[in-house]
Amino acid sequence: MTESVSKESSLIADEGLDKGLARLTSEKIEKTIKTILTNETGARLKTYVSTCVHCGLCSDACHVYLSNRDPACSPVGKIKQTIWEIVKKKGKVDAQFIRRASEIAYTECNLCRRCAMYCPFGIDISYMILIVRRICHKLGVTPHYLQDTAQSHSATLNQMWVKDDEWVDTLQWQEEEAQDEIGDLRIPIDQEGADFFYSVIAPEPKFRAQLIYQAAVIFHSAGVSWTMPATPGWDNSDMCMFSGDNEMMGRLKKAHFETAMRLKVKKIVMGECGHAFRSVYDVGNRWLGFREPPIPIIHSIQFFYELLKEGRIKIAKKYAKTVTLHDPCNTVRGAGLHEMIRMIAHETCEKVIEMHPNREHNYCCNAGGGVINCGPPFKNKRVENNSIKADQLRNVKEQGAETVIAPCHNCHGGLEDIIHTYKLDMDLKFLGDIIYECMEKPEE
Amino acid sequence: MHAVYNFVSGPLLWVSFILFFGGSVYRIVSMVRMAKKTDPVVYHFWSLKYALRSIFHWIIPFASENMRKQPAMTIVTFAFHICLFIAPLFLFAHIILFKASWNISWMYLPDTVADIMTMIVIGACIFFLVRRLKLPEVKYVTSCSDYVILAIVAAPFITGFWTFHQLPGFRIMGIAHILSGEIMLAAIPFTRLSHMFFFPFTRGYMGSEFGAVRHARDW
Fold first, then answer.
1. How many domains does chain A divide into?
2. Is the C or the N end of chain B the one with fewer CB within 10 Å?
3. Chain B contact for A124 (CB, 8 A cutoff)
4. Do A52 and A178 reside in the same domain of the chain?
């Protein structure tokens, strides 16, 4: 294994990883791995490991590999350094191995699932990386910042340690702000029987409260019946899904679905977040035993698309700057919403330039999958590991694009750092930003 | 020599057939049964329509993005797999043996065509070898077993070519040909060559997840 522990990245200090490492013993490692491999894996893992012909054709799928051409960063390269060894040695691996495996699984893979589209066998590499994360979680070797987020989830049922009163207070604050613009606007709190419950991720009330304001203006103008809950369960985000804490993931999803039930709404509409959508509609629901979510869940992309299509919101003046579109993995490769993004962009913007590759073949922002949540220790590596995205952005900038539309919170975080570090000087917008800016608003 | 020939072409052949057919059935059945127990998700989300849609895009040359990005690999790998199956199954010399033993026969290829196909397989194996040795991303994940598997696949074709052209030592090579063919058959279910029959399952499952759940393409 020595040759695979190559990169200087292994030297990145992280309190969570380092302290976790100090607590490990070889017996604990072996026992934990065996328990997980026996109880939680089976035919899929076995078939994936024995079917992979080591052809390396998945390499070109991975933005991390494409950014630095280090074979240790290719999808199969990451698998070789982690799950292959774990399976081969039946858990008899040392603590340093776990340290490196944890860093790979949490900070060098976004679970973006692009590699599944490049592997001739459709081997689900992100599934295997999630098994590695599950093992690391059980061993208590998770990056400090990510674990902090997971703790927040377990203590508050939201990602950002937002207290119950702060949440309601933020909604009322945004309502007041918006009333300066539209006098009779309301952010209906805990209104039973509304058509839908609008759920957001905790960074919205924490850092990007204006997004709640904008959503309220859009919903008010469209004349829809909506509400936001006053109780925990309002946050749809789920870093536990990415830290490997499946039990906690289940609790979060349950709280979210039950809040919708309590409010007797017909559906949940989610803010512009990718991973949260994955957690409610693909992963968390399955953990709870639902094939599909127990209540219809619509992503903002689709909701905005429907509002525009039905003419419930009208565009007063198109967005003048030339825009380009970043396709978020979890709503495009994960839910096929790419054409809706394009319809909204063409309806609202003067000129749209496509980045290539796009749609399902988009490059990830390298922030998703919990990678950005691993925090400052890994920030530089995260940005360096996505120079391919910077190239892609530079390319459309040269063609005249000034604004990047990315309908996903994680993508915003990742792209913001890329734009800043690579001095690309581009604006970054959500679809909601553009719609809010360009739509016809009620007079008052 | 005769005794060796008789052994290799008699009992050993049966052993290899049993290992190949029995092993393949065993691997598939045990995987399918294990999946029911450990990965019921595969059954819940399996969709024949989307499985076939995905498989279709991956068995047609250049029908997937990655195949278009790797034209040399695509051409070689398709040529390789096609020739690997067609040449031995429709080789005149093999059909004669079936005719002599069980009195069954089917259409066969002109010898020149079979010869060219054999050379394609050998050439493709050299291509794969060079790829493993030269491309950093392939070299990095290559283990000793990958070379062994490549040798197992190349051997019957090299020895077959040798025997057919009656190059020096072809009698020994003839025996080596039968033996290496038997090794290859027997190895299929128990090595990564099992990708032969696992392909529809892994590809189909991914196609189902992408098509039916994620409404996205996976090619």
1. 3
2. N
3. yes
4. no
Neighbour-count burial of A267, counting CB atoms closer than 10 A to its CB (0-12 exposed, 13-18 middle, 19+ buried): middle
CA nearest to B131, candidates B150, B148, B116, B145: B150
Q: Which one of B137, B146, B216 has the shortest CB-CB distance to A360? A: B216
In the numeric block, the tokens 């990830």 are attached to A364
Burial class (CB in 10 A: 0-12, 13-18, 19+), A425: exposed
Last residue in a domain, options A308, A331, A354: A308
Do the domain assignments include residue B219?
no
Q: Which of residues 69-108 of A touch B (CB under 8 A)?
A: 69, 71-72, 74, 76-77, 80
pLDDT of B146 higher than 60: yes
Residue A151: inside a domain: no
How many angstroms separate the CA of residue A330 from the nearest CA in chain B?
Answer: 9
Query: Could you give the CA distance from residue A114 to residue A327 in angstroms, rounded to a whole number?
Result: 12
A43 and A138 inside one domain: yes
C-beta atoms of B66 and A117 within 8 A: yes
User: CATH code at B75?
Assistant: 1.20.950
Out of A48, A60, A117, closest to residue B219 by CB: A117
Q: How far apart are CA B206 and CA B219, in angstroms?
A: 10
Average pLDDT (B29-37) is 96
Do A302 and A224 share a structural domain?
A: yes
Helices then strands (H, E): number in chain A? 23, 8
Q: Mean pLDDT per 10-residue run, chain A (444 residues)?
A: 44 92 96 97 96 97 97 97 97 96 97 96 97 98 97 97 96 96 96 97 95 97 97 96 97 97 97 95 95 95 98 96 98 96 98 97 97 97 97 97 97 97 97 97 79
Task: List Cα–Cα distances, B24 to A87, B179, B194, in angstroms.
Answer: 22, 19, 8
pLDDT of A229: 97
Are residues A117 and B207, on separate chains, in Cβ contact within 8 Å? no
A434 contacts A348 by C-beta, under 8 angstroms: yes
Residues A366 and A293 reside in one and the same domain: no
- Cβ pair A384, A64 in contact under 8 A: no
Last residue of a domain, one of A257, A288, A308: A308
pLDDT reported for residue B46: 97
In a domain? residue B24: yes
Would an 8 Å CB–CB cutoff place A332 in contact with chain B? Answer: yes
Domains held by chain B: number: 1
pLDDT for the residue numbered A2: 38
Same domain for A304 and A161: yes
Supply the pLDDT for residue A117.
95
Task: Answer yes or no: do A102 and A161 share one domain.
Answer: no
The whole-angstrom distance between B98's CA and the closest CA on chain A is: 32
State whether A165 and A298 are in the same domain.
Answer: yes
Nearest-neighbour CA in chain A from B60: distance (Å): 11
Of B206, B16, B178, B13, nearest to B91 by C-alpha is B178
Asked whether residue A152 is assigned to any structural domain, the reply reads no
Q: Is the dihedral of CA A382, A384, A386, A392 positive or negative?
A: positive
Nearest Cβ partner for B218 among A48, A65, A122? A122
Q: Do B216 and A291 touch (CB under 8 A)?
A: no
In-domain check, residue B202? yes
CATH number, domain with residue A207: 3.40.50
In a domain, B207, yes or no: yes
Q: B70 vs A57: CB contact, 8 Å cut-off?
A: yes
The answer to whether B66 contacts A57, with C-beta atoms less than 8 Å apart, is: yes
Indicate the SS3 state at residue A297: strand
Give the range of the structural domain holding residue A256, as residue numbers without chain letter. Answer: 157-308
Are A80 and B219 an interchain contact pair (Cβ–Cβ within 8 Å)?
Answer: no
| Residue predicted with more confidence, A110 or B5 | A110
